[in-house]
C-alpha cells in the first residue's frame, strides 16, 4: 500500500526521464510532498521558491510560457486559498499548462488541524472555468492521473492524500477523464464518492452488505469536466443517491451530483455526507474519520440511517 | 525580424509619446470608461522601450527569441495598446474597439487575445512573479532575451510583489529588469501631507525609502526622471552593463507624474480614471497633436 504523495513523486521522476518539460516548483515542503525525490533526480528542473505560494504560481506560469509544464508542490490548502488569485488570472484564464498538486488534502494531514485541512478545495476549484479537477482514489489511479496530467494541455488541479488507503482499482486500470468508475455493483442505494474517501466507502459497502443493505459504489475521479452520461448510467435504477466526501457538503461532490441529477430531471433523493458546514480539528486519522463520520464504520451507520429515513422497505 | 530598431531622435520619441497620450484620452473618452492617469505617466517609458530598446518584431509577435514585456499594472492597458498599435502590432483604428464586446483589446491585457501582449494582467501584484518565471525559464533554456516588467507604485503594496523581488535576486536573474512607474498617486490613497507630497494625495511610498529597500534586496537600482528620454536611455545603458556583469536583477525607479502631458489630468488622483468632455478633448488635442499627426 503506497501513499499518493509517494506515487506522485515516483511517477514524476519516471515521466521526467522521457519528457524534459516536466518540472517541479516547490514551496518549502518538498520533504512532505515527496518532491525531494524529484529534486534529487532532476536538480535542474526543480525550483525551490520558498514559502511564497502566490509567487510559486506566478513563476510556474512564467516557466510554462517557455514550454515547461511545471507541477506545484505544496499543501493543497495554500494553493486553493492563499494562491487562488494568481491561479485564477495567470493559470486558469490563460490556459497555462501548470499542474496544481494539492498535497495533504482533506482532513488527514498529520494532525495539523483545521488551518491545514483543505475541505473546500473541490468547491472552489470546480467553480473556476477552464480548470480540470481530479481526485484519484488510490495509488493506482494517482499514478495514472499524474501521467495523464503530464500529457494534458492546460491547467489541472489534482487532489492528493498524505496517507495510503486500501487500493480498490486493478493495476491495469486506465484513467479516462470524466468517466466515473463503478467499484461495486448493487442497489437500490448508490454510494457516490471521490478521492481516497471512495476506498473507505467501498469498505463501508461491505459492512452494509453484512447488514442486508446492498449498495452500489460509484467513484467519481473527475470532478470537472464530469461525463454526466457516465454518472447517470452508473446510478441508473437506484432510488437513493448518497454522496460521501472528505470535504464540506457544500459545493463539492454532493453539489456536483445534485446539480447533475436535477439538470437531467432525475427525481431521486440525494443525501450529502461530509463536513456539515463545520471546521475540523487536530487528531489522529482514525479519530477524525470517526468523529466526522468518514470511517467505513461511520459511513455504514450514516448510510443505514439515511436509508431507513427514506426507504424503509429496502431493509428487511 | 526580431531585432532592436535604431534609436530614433528624441524629438520623434516625444512626438510618439504625445500621440500615445492622445490615443489614451481619446480612446477612453470614446469608450466612455477607462484609466487615464497611469497610462499617461508610463507613456514615455513604454515609447522608449518599444521604439528603441526591446528586440521584437510586430510581424512575429510570438517569436521565441523576442524580449518579453509584462505590464503588471494591467489597468494601464490602453497605454500599452496605444504603443503596440503605433509600433505596428495591429491597426491604430482598432483602438476604437477598446473595452467593446468581442474586442481583442480588453479592459485589462489578455495574452490570448492581443498580439504583442506577453502576459495577462489586471489583478495587481502578479506581473513580477510571472516575469521571474519567464526569466528563470530563459536562464534554464539558455535563451538570450531580456524580460521587462512595469509596475505601479500603488501596486507595490501587494505582498506578492515582494515575494517575487526576493526570488529574482535569489535566482540571480540578470536577464530581468523591473521599471517602477512612481507616479506618486493611486486610485484613492491617503490625504496629502503638506510639504511632503507632490500631488493632491499622499505618495504611496512617501513614508519609506523605496530605492533603499530594493537595494537591500540586492537589486541594481537606477533612479531617474521617467519623463526624460535622456535619463531613460542612460538607465537602459546601465541595465545592459548590470546584465552583462551578471549583477542580478535591475530596477529602474522612474519618478513620473500621474496624468503627465495633459494640463487638466496631471498631478491629480481624480484622473486615475475618467472621461473627457468635449472642451477637454479639444484642449488635449491642441496640447498633444501637431499638424500632420493622425488623430
TrEMBL record, chain A:
Family as reported in the entry's similarity comment: Belongs to the transketolase family.
UniProt cofactor(s): thiamine diphosphate
Database matches in SUPFAM superfamilies: Thiamin diphosphate-binding fold (THDP-binding), TK C-terminal domain-like
A GO MF term: magnesium ion binding
Domain Transketolase-like pyrimidine-binding: 2-168
InterPro entries, alphabetized: PDH/Transketolase, THDP-binding, Transketo_C/PFOR_II, Transketolase-like_Pyr-bd, Transketolase_C
Keywords noted in UniProt: Thiamine pyrophosphate
Species assigned in the record: Subtercola lobariae
Record's protein name: Transketolase
A Pfam family recorded for this sequence: Transketolase_C
TrEMBL record, chain B:
Pfam families the UniProt entry points to: Transketolase_N (PF00456)
Cofactor(s) essential for the protein: thiamine diphosphate
Keywords for this protein: Thiamine pyrophosphate
Domain Transketolase N-terminal as annotated: residue spans: 15-288
UniProt-listed CDD domains: TPP_TK
MF term (GO), any: magnesium ion binding
Keyword Transport in record: no
Family, similarity comment: Belongs to the transketolase family.
Descriptive protein name: Transketolase
Lineage of producing organism: Bacteria, Bacillati, Actinomycetota, Actinomycetes, Micrococcales
Amino acid at each position: 500500500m503506497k501513499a499518493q504523495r509517494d506515487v506522485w513523486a515516483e511517477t514524476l521522476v519516471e515521466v521526467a526521464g522521457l519528457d524534459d518539460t516536466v518540472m517541479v516548483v516547490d514551496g518549502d515542503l518538498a520533504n512532505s510532498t515527496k518532491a525531494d525525490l524529484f529534486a534529487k533526480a532532476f536538480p535542474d528542473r526543480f525550483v525551490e521558491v520558498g514559502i511564497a505560494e502566490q509567487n510559486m504560481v506566478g513563476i510556474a506560469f512564467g516557466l510554462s510560457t517557455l514550454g515547461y509544464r511545471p507541477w506545484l508542490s505544496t499543501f493543497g490548502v495554500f494553493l486553493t486559498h492563499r494562491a487562488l488569485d494568481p491561479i485564477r488570472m495567470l493559470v486558469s484564464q490563460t490556459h497555462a499548462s501548470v499542474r496544481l498538486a494539492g498535497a495533504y488534502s482533506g482532513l488527514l494531514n498529520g494532525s495539523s488541524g483545521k488551518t491545514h485541512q483543505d475541505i473546500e478545495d473541490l468547491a472552489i476549484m470546480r467553480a473556476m472555468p477552464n480548470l480540470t479537477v481530479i481526485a484519484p482514489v488510490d495509488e493506482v489511479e494517482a499514478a495514472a492521473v499524474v501521467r495523464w496530467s503530464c500529457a494534458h494541455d492546460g491547467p489541472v488541479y489534482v487532489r492528493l492524500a498524505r496517507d495510503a488507503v486500501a487500493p480498490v482499482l486493478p493495476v491495469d486500470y486506465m484513467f479516462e477523464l470524466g468517466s466515473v468508475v463503478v467499484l461495486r455493483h448493487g442497489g437500490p442505494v448508490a454510494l457516490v464518492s471521490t478521492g481516497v474517501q471512495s476506498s473507505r466507502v467501498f469498505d463501508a459497502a461491505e459492512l452494509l452488505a453484512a447488514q442486508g443493505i446492498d449498495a452500489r459504489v460509484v467513484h467519481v475521479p473527475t470532478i470537472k469536466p464530469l461525463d454526466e452520461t457516465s454518472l447517470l448510467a452508473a446510478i441508473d435504477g437506484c432510488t437513493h443517491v448518497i454522496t460521501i466526501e472528505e470535504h464540506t457538503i457544500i459545493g463539492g461532490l454532493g453539489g456536483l451530483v445534485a446539480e447533475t441529477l436535477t439538470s437531467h430531471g432525475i427525481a431521486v433523493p440525494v443525501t450529502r455526507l461530509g463536513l456539515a458546514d463545520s471546521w475540523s480539528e487536530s487528531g489522529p486519522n482514525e479519530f477524525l474519520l470517526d468523529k466526522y463520520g468518514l470511517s467505513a464504520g461511520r459511513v455504514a451507520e450514516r448510510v443505514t440511517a439515511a436509508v431507513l429515513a427514506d426507504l424503509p422497505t429496502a431493509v428487511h | 525580424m526580431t531585432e532592436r530598431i535604431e534609436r530614433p531622435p528624441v524629438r520623434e520619441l516625444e512626438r510618439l509619446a504625445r500621440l500615445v497620450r492622445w490615443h489614451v484620452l481619446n480612446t477612453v473618452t470614446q469608450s466612455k470608461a477607462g484609466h487615464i492617469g497611469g497610462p499617461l505617466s508610463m507613456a514615455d517609458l513604454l515609447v522608449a522601450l518599444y521604439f528603441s530598446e526591446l528586440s521584437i518584431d510586430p510581424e512575429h509577435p510570438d517569436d521565441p527569441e523576442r524580449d518579453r514585456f509584462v505590464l503588471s499594472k494591467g489597468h494601464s492597458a490602453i497605454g500599452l495598446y496605444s504603443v503596440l498599435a503605433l509600433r505596428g502590432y495591429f491597426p491604430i483604428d482598432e483602438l476604437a474597439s477598446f473595452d467593446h464586446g468581442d474586442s481583442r483589446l480588453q479592459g485589462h491585457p489578455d495574452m490570448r487575445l492581443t498580439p504583442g501582449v506577453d502576459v495577462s494582467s489586471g489583478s495587481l501584484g502578479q506581473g513580477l512573479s510571472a516575469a521571474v518565471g519567464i526569466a528563470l525559464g530563459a536562464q534554464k533554456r539558455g535563451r538570450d532575451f531580456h524580460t521587462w516588467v512595469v509596475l505601479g507604485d500603488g501596486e507595490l503594496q501587494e505582498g506578492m510583489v515582494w515575494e517575487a523581488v526576493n526570488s529574482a535576486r535569489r535566482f540571480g536573474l540578470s536577464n530581468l529588469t523591473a521599471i517602477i512607474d512612481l507616479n506618486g498617486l493611486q486610485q484613492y490613497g491617503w490625504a496629502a501631507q503638506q510639504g511632503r507630497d507632490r500631488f493632491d494625495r499622499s505618495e504611496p511610498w512617501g513614508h519609506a525609502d523605496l530605492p533603499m529597500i530594493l537595494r537591500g534586496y540586492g537589486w541594481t537600482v537606477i533612479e531617474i526622471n521617467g519623463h526624460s528620454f535622456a535619463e531613460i536611455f542612460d538607465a537602459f545603458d546601465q541595465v545592459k552593463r548590470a546584465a552583462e556583469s551578471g549583477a542580478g536583477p535591475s530596477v529602474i525607479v522612474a519618478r513620473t507624474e500621474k496624468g503627465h502631458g495633459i494640463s487638466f489630468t496631471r498631478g491629480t488622483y481624480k484622473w486615475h480614471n475618467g472621461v473627457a468632455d468635449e472642451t477637454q478633448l479639444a484642449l488635449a488635442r491642441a496640447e498633444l497633436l501637431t499638424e500632420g499627426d493622425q488623430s
